[in-house]
Amino acid sequence: MLKTSFIRALLIPTAILALTACGGEDDSEPAASESNSPSAASSSAPAAAAAKSDEELCEAFKESQEQFQKTFTETMADFLTATEEEMESAIGELMTEMATEVTEIAATGNADSEVTATLEALSMEAEKAAANLDSADDAAYEAAGEAAVAACQKVGVEINY
């Protein structure tokens, strides 16, 4: 009973998060530091490793969540007649993949960014859920997802909620 209840509780916020991931305009922003000075040319390696903006993180998060939604929908359609164990395994794998992608996205952001922090928190909660679906705290996972969406809204990325 607990497994079924948790799976249902996990499916709803996951579907909502997948449907409401960061959205927004596809603005083409010019490079932040285009310069022809010799100092700029000599420091091209550090510039290449520069952290992404919060908007870029949200766009990457949006793409990741759109792919997650597609994969999640396909997987759930494939497992409609599956056993509870098979469904748990599939959800665990999906959550692990999502956590990994969100971790990779967050790693490209500024360490002191609210968006980066909320993406890291979401990844951590997704990893917890994937590791143990029976005892995962779905409220914490849902709150982490909502915080990530809210952080993207704060930086001007529209959320289709």
Can you tell me about this structure?
- The chain has 161 residues and is mainly alpha-helical.
- It has 7 helices and no strands.
- The protein has helices spanning 2-19, 38-42, 44-48, 54-78, 84-107, 114-131, 138-154.
- Helix 4 packs parallel to helix 6 (114-131) and helix 5 runs antiparallel to helix 6.
- The longest helix has 25 residues, at 54-78.
- Mean pLDDT is 75; it is low at 1-6 and 8-48.
Give descriptors for this structure:
7 helices; 161 residues; 70% helix; mainly alpha; disordered N terminus
Order of helices and strands: HHHHHHH
Characterize the main sheet: none
Residue-averaged pLDDT: 75
Give the termini separation: 30 Å
Structural class: mainly alpha
Shape: elongated
What Rg, in angstroms, do the CA atoms define? Answer: 18 Å
Kindly state the percentage of residues in helix. 55-70%
Number of DSSP helical runs: 7
> Hey, roughly how much beta strand do the residues contain?
under 5%
Q: Show unreliable segments.
A: 1-6, 8-48
Query: In total, how many beta strands?
Result: 0
